[in-house]
Amino acid sequence: MSYPSRTITSGSQTAEGRPSARPQPAGFLGRYPIWGLCLLLLGGLAFGVLAYNVRTNGPLLAWDLPVAQALHAYARHDSIVGFDVMVFSGTLGRETALAISILLTLYFLWRRFWHELSMVVLGVFGGNGWFELLSHLFNRHRPVFTDPLVTPLPGPGFPSGHSMTAVLLYGLILYLLLPRLKSGRWRLLAAFDAVMIILLIGFSRLYMGDHYLTDVLAGFSFGLAWGAIVYTGLELYRQRRYRRLRQAKT
Fold first, then answer.
1. Residue 17 or 82, more confident
2. Running DSSP on this structure, what letter comes out for residue 93?
3. Which of 86, 176, 196, 201 has the highest CB neighbour count under 10 A?
């Protein structure tokens, strides 16, 4: 799998590093939008199946309570270190994720990287808007325990907002970072780290008793589908502008 050169993904800037309004070639999803379509279909189909089961109390929900109870029992006897790791992992999908998103927004504004800024605003912050809408639409209760580990989070639990944000934010960071890594070993390591962070965030939601398994899977699925729509769409728009510029010069 080949990736564009560093000048393609380092923002709209000239070779000397100065910001430029001239469109740049699109990244991987702009050149191969079929992958974005595949991700959209995969995430959309998975979310649709999960949402249907939640609405109809379908068979997939049979796993929710046993998994929640088993993990809660394990968490009650886990070490302090393990508990603190899970608490911190949860912040990666909320408080820490918000701080990273704001820092990325400010950085892209400062460097005038409008394309990357659009990805953060529409993808990550837009995904949080979808979470608010979907959670109140489904209005599904969160797990209830007689001896909760922490104070239960308010509001409905389907889909998991932490899991959705994890896919949208850390998936975007990986997408922007990969073309700048020249070594295949570093690319593989970056991809592994991003996937592990996403999975760890989802597991922390189950560990802390804030969500059912289907909530987390739905968050992953919708994040994948929404990310595919936004990031592929923006890359296609960038590619179209770049081609128009090239044609105007010929």
1. 82
2. T
3. 201
- Which two three-digit tokens encode residue 221? 């699925």
2 domain residue, yes or no: no
Write down the pTM of the prediction.
0.87
d(CA 29, CA 76): 44
Percent of the chain with pLDDT over 70: 90
Identify whether 162 is a catalytic site residue. Answer: yes
Structure tokens given for 88: 């911190």
pLDDT at 114 over 60: yes
Token pair of 12 as six digits: 């709209």
Out of 72, 136, 141, 162, the active site residue is: 162
Q: Give me the domain span that covers residue 91.
A: 26-245
Name every residue whose Cβ is closer than 8 Å to that of residue 118 and which is 6 or more positions away in sequence: 234
Residue 11 φ then ψ, to 5°: 95, 170
Which two tokens mark 66? 């046993």
* Residue 1 in domain: no
Is 115 designated active site? no
Residue 18 reports pLDDT greater than 60: no
The rounded distance, in Å, linking the Cα atoms of 96 and 123 is 17
Q: How many domains does the chain have?
A: 1
